[in-house]
């Protein structure tokens, strides 16, 4: 039987916005899910069954093989020691960073994802992750210290629905980095999704076997994806379809200098081909002639 996570408010006691996100067992999207375009809403999406299923979606072993040493090498080649994983999720990158000897702090705005991350850290190698429940918009208030690097991976930045919130989050990241720090943000290739049209057959499969992630609704202000699991359960995420050039421009505006953008971990690619872009943004001052603004 297919269990839809998209219940309407009168069917779902958790739809009451007074219910804390830590208590929510089902995703809440209300009567018109395509109208949910709100930065705060992520704490009502990463809940209950979806959190339990997240690790099926992104099968850790296959993900690790797919990424290889890309992030580790980016960090080590810059002499990074301390890292803030700003979008910890269930802890995949945090655990990997700890294993590689980085001094790691694991932040996330979803308490349910963080709880899962903590137990995953213990299960995979006995790591005690230093978890902090923090929203990016208030990062400097809730996480203390300066970091050589901040990572925000797994297409997480896409959860910010207003430019105001994107600028604020980037400014918070910038402020928490040391003078020569580096920010790594990845994003789905929404240019391809938007330009091929919402009716396109472009279907994305995550690493987990038989778990599919496909667009349910796409317009310039919303990319709503449906995640279907082998047991028939379905979950949704509402995200803002960031265009690559736009996000690079925002990073430049808040002060990042050299920004390298990789496509599916490769330096050279055609624009529509990669599923993901990865931006590696440095804070160290560069002459404007050295900036790569493409
Ligand atoms: C798509 S998951 C990715 C998790 C993990 N990085 C991965 O790759 O598996 C996005 C994560 O970003 C977090 N998140 C979204 N918006 C946030 C915000 N404004 N502040 C803090 N965390 C946020 C969510 O709670 C969720 O755990």
Automatic annotation (TrEMBL):
SUPFAM superfamilies: S-adenosyl-L-methionine-dependent methyltransferases. Residues 1-36 are annotated as: Disordered. GO terms for cellular component: cytosol. GO terms for molecular function: glycine binding; glycine N-methyltransferase activity; identical protein binding; S-adenosyl-L-methionine binding. Keywords: Methyltransferase, S-adenosyl-L-methionine, Transferase. Residues 83-181 form the Methyltransferase domain. Signal peptide: none annotated. This is SAM-dependent methyltransferase. It comes from Halosaccharopolyspora lacisalsi.
């Amino acid at each position: 039987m297919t269990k839809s996570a998209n219940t309407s408010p009168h069917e779902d006691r958790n739809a009451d916005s007074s219910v804390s996100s830590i208590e929510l067992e089902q995703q809440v999207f209300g009567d018109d899910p395509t109208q949910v375009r709100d930065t705060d809403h992520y704490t009502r999406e990463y809940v209950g069954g979806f959190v339990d299923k997240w690790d099926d979606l992104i099968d850790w072993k296959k993900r690790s093989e797919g990424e290889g040493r890309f992030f580790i090498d980016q960090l080590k080649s810059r002499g990074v020691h301390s890292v803030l994983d700003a979008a910890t999720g269930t802890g995949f990158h945090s655990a990997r960073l700890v294993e590689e000897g980085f001094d790691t702090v694991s932040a996330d705005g979803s308490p349910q994802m963080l709880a899962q991350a903590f137990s995953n850290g213990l299960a995979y190698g006995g790591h005690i992750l230093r978890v902090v429940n923090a929203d990016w918009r208030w990062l400097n208030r809730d996480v203390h210290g300066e970091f050589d690097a901040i990572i925000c991976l797994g297409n997480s930045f896409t959860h910010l629905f207003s430019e105001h919130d994107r600028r604020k989050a980037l400014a918070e990241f910038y402020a928490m980095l040391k003078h020569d720090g580096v920010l790594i943000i990845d994003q789905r290739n929404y240019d391809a999704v938007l330009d091929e049209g919402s009716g396109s057959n472009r279907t994305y499969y995550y690493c987990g076997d038989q778990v599919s992630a496909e667009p349910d609704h796409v317009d310039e202000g919303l990319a709503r994806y449906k995640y279907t699991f082998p047991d028939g359960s379905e979950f949704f995420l509402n995200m803002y379809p960031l265009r690559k050039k736009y996000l690079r421009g925002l990073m430049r505006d808040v002060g990042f200098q050299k920004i390298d953008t990789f496509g599916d971990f490769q330096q050279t690619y055609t624009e529509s081909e990669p599923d993901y872009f990865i931006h590696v943004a440095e804070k160290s001052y560069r002459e404007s002639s050295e900036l790569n603004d493409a």
